[in-house]
Amino acid sequence: MTATMARPGQVPRTDRRPAAQQRRRRPAPIGKSFASFILIAIAAFTVFPLIWLVLTSLRPQNTIFTGPIFPTHLTFAAYPEAWVSTGFAVHFLNSLWITAATVAGVVIFASLAGYAFAKLRFPFKNVLYVALLATLMMPATSLIIPLYLQLRAIGLLNNQLGLLILYVSSSAPFSMFLMRAFFETLPDELVQAARVDGATELQVFRRVVLPLARPGMATVIIFQFLQTWNEFLYANTVLQDTGKLPLQPVLFSLMGQYNTDWPTLTAGLTMSIVPVILVYVWMQRQFVAGLTLGAVKN
Fold first, then answer.
1. Which pLDDT tens digit goes with each residue over 199-226?
2. CB count in 10 Å sphere of residue 111
3. Residues 6+ apart with CB under 8 A from 235
4. Quick check: helix, strand or coil at residue 14?
5. Homologous superfamily, domain 83-292
6. Helix, strand and coil in the chain, % to nearest 5
7. How many other CB atoms sit within 10 Å of the CB of residue 179?
8. pLDDT of 265 higher than 80
9. Are 89 and 268 within 8 A, CB to CB?
10. CB-count burial class (<10 Å; 0-12, 13-18, 19+) for 281
11. How far apart are CA 111 and CA 219, in angstroms?
12. Where in the chain is the domain with CATH 1.10.3720.10?
């Protein structure tokens, strides 16, 4: 701010135009209220299916579509019914180990491939990268028959290991794309300094690059956990033995052709979403940091 010439005995006046401009830049109260109203409406619209799911699991069968939104009588009878009728514990453990193994495999392969495409030089690098990205354009429904025939040919049909191979191979390209983007944000000087100090590429990856890529790994873990936990098509096609099925195909079997026990179905779905919520709450800070990485530039 610039000061004007003042007469003797007067306080110099300052130019208040920047302050006035700053006041004009502040959003009006009406604008804030309107933005808050829109955000609240979007949040309510997003949360409503979850609220309906939980409330439906706590109401009697005869009040599903005729009673009020908030039931007048709460009952927890649907939860033990869903636990027993679906063999929830067995299929929950199947989903848990298949999802954990898939997430571990995808994180390992995607991290190694992402580091190679971001920081290393090798022949046909761009060609291989484009070929991997091209696999993302093919929908899962168009690949289900060829994959089914391949698994049957190698003897992995009706085998959880075959399902695990499908999950890892189909999910690794997208996760590799994400990890490559995170690795490219890291300065090359760190990698070059570690190489000058005599570190091998594996040591550079494990001790220098990988600790800095935790937000990217958290993003991959949450996306992959959610995708694998809720996957239905591959599991229902590859596995014919009911005892080997993960949780989602078994819960889908509760849908009847003419009648559906909605409290039991929603109770099973409510219990099935608990691991997803726990994983997100556990890694939410790194997940948010991964989504905003690179948004602010110095």
1. 888 888 888 888 888 888 888 998 999 9
2. 24
3. 163, 245, 246, 248, 249
4. strand
5. MetI-like (1.10.3720.10)
6. 70, 0, 25
7. 27
8. yes
9. no
10. exposed
11. 12
12. 83-292
B/e letters for 93-105, b = 16+ CB within 10 Å, e = fewer, are ebbeebbebbbeb
User: Which pLDDT band holds residue 296 (cuts at 50, 70, 90)?
Assistant: very low
| Measured CA distances, 178 to 35, 71, 193, 225 (Å) | 32, 44, 25, 15
Prediction pTM value: 0.80
Instruction: Write out pLDDT tens, residues 19-74.
Output: 555 555 555 577 778 888 898 999 989 899 899 999 999 998 888 888 788 888 88
CA distance 273 to 37: 29
Other Cβ atoms less than 10 A from the Cβ of 247: the count is 27
Q: Please tell me the distance from the alpha carbon of residue 37 to that of residue 34, in angstroms, as a whole number.
A: 5
Are 56 and 262 in contact by the 8 Å Cβ rule? The answer is: yes
- 3-state DSSP call for residue 100? helix
At 287, the amino acid letter reads F
